[in-house]
Amino acid sequence: MRNKAAAARHHRLIYLLNVAQRRLQRWMAAQPQNEVTPAQAGLLFILGKQDGILMGEAGAALDMGPAGISGLVDRTAAAKLIERRPDREDGRAWRVWLTSKGRTVLAQAKTDAAQINAALTDGFTSAEIDIVARWLTSIQDKFPRPSDE
Fold this sequence. Notes:
Layout: H1 2-11, H2 13-30, H3 38-49, E1 53-54, H4 55-61, H5 66-78, E2 82-86, E3 94-98, H6 100-121, H7 126-142
C-alpha cells in the first residue's frame, strides 16, 4: 500500500488533471471556428439527444447546479442557439429547445469534438483509453457533487 501511495504522489494527478483541463478549455475557446464555449457545446449535445429537456435535467446532465445552468441557458439563449419555454404541466419549470441556428452549431460542434477526441487519443491504444475513461468516470463516484449545489 505504501508503494502505491508513493507512486500516486509522484504522478501529481491533481496538478496534471487541472492543467490538462485548463489547457484544453483555453485551446478550444481560442479556435476561430468555435461559435460556442465548451459548456454551451455540452448543452447543445444534450439537447441534440433530448430536445425540450427540463432545465434541471440539463443541469444534472452537465453536473451543474441551478445557478450554473440558469446562467448557461441565459448565455446560450442570448446567442439564439436555444430557447426556453415554460413547461406545460408545471408553471414553475422551464424546458429548453434547440433553435435552427443551434442545430447548425451543434453539427459543427460534433465535428470539432470528433477531431479533438482524435487528437486526445492519438498515440494511445483503445485499451489505454478505456482505462483513462474508467479512471475519469470513477472520480464522479469517489467525489460526488454536494447536494446543496
